[in-house]
Amino acid sequence: MGPEMKLLDVVALTEDLSEHDLQRGQVGTIVEVLGPDAFTVEFVDNNGRTYATLSLRADQLMVLHHQSA
After folding, report:
1. For residue 2, what pLDDT band results from cuts at 50, 70 and 90?
2. 27-34 — which CB contacts under 8 Å span 24+ positions?
3. 13 to 34, 36: CA distances (angstroms)
4. What is the pLDDT of residue 4?
């Protein structure tokens, strides 16, 4: 299992969510921790406009890192 996910982590989808027009690899930010394995994730376009906000399970997400651990 990877690192524990927390508020404001940048994450990517690990699966397609066609019902929400989202694809594996799309990047969002955790904006609310709903439980140990559940999060609200906000997806924003390059202009800063939110195009999706979803409650997702930890197994649907992976934390992205911008520097070495």
Report:
1. low
2. 27/64, 28/52, 30/5, 30/6, 31/7, 32/7, 33/5, 33/6, 33/7
3. 17, 18
4. 87
Please state the φ and ψ torsions of residue 20, each to the nearest 5 degrees: -115, 10
Q: Give the separation between CA 37 and CA 59, rounded to whole angstroms.
A: 8
The C-alpha atoms of residue 52 and residue 69 are separated, in whole angstroms, by 29
Q: What is the pLDDT of residue 66?
A: 80
The tokens of 14 are what? 């690990």
Contacts of 47 (CB under 8 A, 6+ apart): none
pLDDT in tens, 9-25: 999 999 999 999 999 99
**How many of the other CB atoms lie within 10 Å of CB of 62?**
16
